[in-house]
Amino acid sequence: MIRAVISILILMTALSARAEVTIRIFAHTRPVTVVFTPRNGEYRIDHGKHDVLTIGTGETVVVTRQDEKVIFRTLSGVSGVADTLIFTPLAAEALFVMRAPARDEAVKILNGSLMISSYPGSLLVLNVTELEDYLPGVVRAEAGRAGPPEYFRAQAVVARTYAYRTMDRHELDGFDLCDDTHCQVYPGIISDSVIINACRSTAGKVITDRQGVLIEAAFHGNCGGMTASSADVWVSKHPYLVSITDPWCGYSASSVWVKRVSFTGWYDFLKSRGVMPGQEEAFYSPAGSKPVRIMNRTVSGKNINSEEVRVQFGLRSAFFTMRPEGDSLTISGRGYGHGVGLCQDGARAMAEKNMSYEKITGFYYPGTVITDVKNARRPLRP
User: What is the mean pLDDT of residues 358-372?
Assistant: First the structure.
């Protein structure tokens, strides 16, 4: 009991004091060469030697991995080898541009500092910045560009909650979060004033349960009129991630969809799960029946998860019905994404009806509260 109390206090202290975040950049493609260019202001480059370099706006540094070292060179001809390169801004408003020329990566504009070192098979490129500076880019990447301010405020609180709760996800790798979908997509610094203002106006606000623990802030594109329970989709059960009827998202094109699958592909899938053709009638729905969220079906003693069907056939969601029509299978579905937590299309519609971000998040995460992060804590890890 004493250990548990101490752990809680440690976590609460960390959340109240922590405003900085270390993000792995280009986490998905893992480049071996990157290019650093100051866009605004000067940067100091520390490379473990006595001679510290300074570069200004428009200058370029190319960094390449070589075994356990990094090699760098500037366009002016300065070069060297280091264990770790550290780029530090000499002014608070400084910005820099990062490119991964040999990878399919968008150019990123970033602030804060940068650390580059060798990593197995790639460079480890880490951007150290303030969490509140990181947030607007995440909100635009995850929520899109269109919507009223309250929609973006709701998304800002959700994204901030998600970031704080998962801050230790890459602890063993030496950083906090990655810039890929594994954490939250981070495109870098943005200039969208509506999104930036939404983040600033909710600065420090997070969502917790009644015990003050940061929630699992799941969200998705469209629930098709009914959200899913986390217990059905991910096994983990949370009282605020339950199935609720959503009257707000039906306007979207993602709300209803149809896809046809060949019987050949369907039968191959069944065989891979140990079900022989002719035994799969349990999957089929009567003509005219509405899509249902049945996560697991048992066919001839074999369990087949609807999520497996979704992934196999590239469906928008696991909220569907199936029926044979002619020489193919017609899959009629609703929604886009896993269906758990906040429905983005529904949240946007609620905001357009002048509902507050507190009401929006309260609807999709019933029984939760919005509070300052200093009053919140992460769940204890086993």
Answer: 98
Burial class (CB in 10 A: 0-12, 13-18, 19+), 281: exposed
Give pLDDT, residue 18: 56
Q: Are 142 and 195 spatial neighbours (Cβ–Cβ below 8 Å)?
A: no
Cβ neighbours for 323, distance < 8 A, ≥ 6 positions apart: 284, 285, 286, 287, 329, 330, 332
Residue 294 has pLDDT above 80, yes or no: no
Q: CA–CA separation, 105 vs 177, rounded Å?
A: 18
Q: What's phi and psi for 333, nearest 5 deg?
A: -135, 175
pLDDT digits (tens, 9 = 90+) for 216-244: 999 999 999 999 999 988 888 999 999 99
SS3 assignment, position 49: coil
- pTM score of the predicted model: 0.89
What 3-state DSSP class applies to 306? helix
Helix (H, G, I), strand (E, B) or coil at 101: coil
Among 143, 154, 157, 159, CA closest to 192: 143
Can you spell out the DSSP letters for 216-232? Answer: ---EESB-TTB-B-HHH
Q: Which residue has the higher pLDDT, 58 or 280?
A: 58
The tokens describing 270, both together, are 């069944």
Residue 102 CB partners (closer than 8 Å, separation 6+): 31, 32, 33
| Least confident span in 144-158, 204-218, 301-315 | 301-315
The encoded tokens of residue 310 equal 């979704």
- Close Cβ partners of 257 (under 8 Å, ≥ 6 residues apart): 316, 332, 333, 334
Q: What angle do CA 59, 60, 65 make, to 5 degrees?
A: 160
User: Which alpha helices (H) appear in the chain, and where do they start and end?
Assistant: 2-17, 131-143, 149-165, 193-201, 230-233, 263-272, 306-313, 344-352, 357-364
